[in-house]
Input
Amino acid sequence: MSDRKLRVSKIRNGTVIDHVSGGQALNVLSILGIDGSEELGVSIVMNVPSAQLGKKDVVKVEDRELSQSEVDVLSLIAPEATINIIRDYDVTRKTRVEQPETVTGILSCPNPGCITNGNEPVETSFSIVADGVRCSYCGTIIRDSLADHIDAE
Amino acid sequence: MMRQDHLITATQLSRADIETVLDQAAEIAADPQAWAESHFGSVLALCFFEPSTRTKMSFDTAMKRLGGTTTDMGTVESSSVKKGESLADTVRVIEGYADAIVLRHPSEGSAQMASEFVDVPVINAGDGAGQHPSQTLLDLYTIRENAGLDDLSIGIMGDLKYGRTVHSLADALTNFDIRQHFISPESLRLPRNVRYDLHEAGAQVREHTELDGVLPELDVLYVTRIQRERFPDESEYRKIAGEYQIDADLLSEAKENLTVMHPLPRVDEIAPDVDKTTHAKYFEQAHNGLPVRMALLDSLLGGDDK
Output
């Protein structure tokens, strides 16, 4: 984090999501349900050079420590992401996102005939399969452009 | 016994599950009277949001032949669904009236969702273009009776994309040593999720756009209806549908003991002259729905405890 090109300053407490695939930062916030109304300090950096990814995004959320289960859904769009929990300017915990078995309430099913697109009190649910996700209700498989199906609050 | 409390998709069925139901169905068929009081007092709810003849009547009769009764939601037009009630609410109400629910609904995944809202067994009797697993059990029963269930070549022809009986049958056949041939127009090939299941199961699968080349090697030919509404115009429909019809003359190219099946209703895809041949098993297939659904209900209602 000592990169001289870093465009935003260090945060005192909170979570830094690093190594997000370039261009996905806004989707990261969307998945996490962060839209500014929480009045958290949020900084994002997009499309900065990365030796590992070519281009990467960085998302910093102040005064909120994201749990592992909260960040694991990010593996759908940012499988290389690293999560740094910051306390008093120091990284106290550094983890990678891990692929969850199912993702609930994040993606919408592209099948218009799926019951989750009807007027029913049910959250979407997708299981992770070999190279995509699969609707737990109608079985529809999404392989490409997962971010297009994000339906977070 | 089923490993689960509901029957939602054919993928949940193991070979042992299938054989247990089919064995019991055979016992029932041999002596139906012996089961006449086995579920006295049990109530089966029939919730059909789409039209049905065979499935609804055979479940109705099956429950009554086990000594139970049925309660029928009636048509969507005459129910609270018409007032905008959700499926989740509907099944939660009906759960209070019945020991099990048979559900047919136009949305894929509807039976899965319904099962999450109730404690009584839910049987998926068709969820849109999804699955129809109780049909599959009677299909497998018919195949077993006529051709056995291993070392077979089965052709499945017609609307493979939207045909829920096809999806369930294809999934269930992966439990057996069966070569599956899928014959359809390009636009009605198997959907991606069913292909995925077949691939994951290591099934022996081939796809064809014409029946001619593969017909001579088939032991079973399962024909389904190609529906008018799947095509943009009438002439395209007639042209395509005409290529996937069979008649007695065509079947002269087939094995002598070929079993021809169809989930019914048929329209033009099997000519009436096939009915008189020894190949035709589709009416027998429909009749098998009764003992198979009696066995299924007995299993889900806890027959072993009685």
The first helix of chain A runs from residue 25 to 32. The interface with chain B takes residues 111, 113-122, 129, 134-141 of chain A (CB under 8 Å).
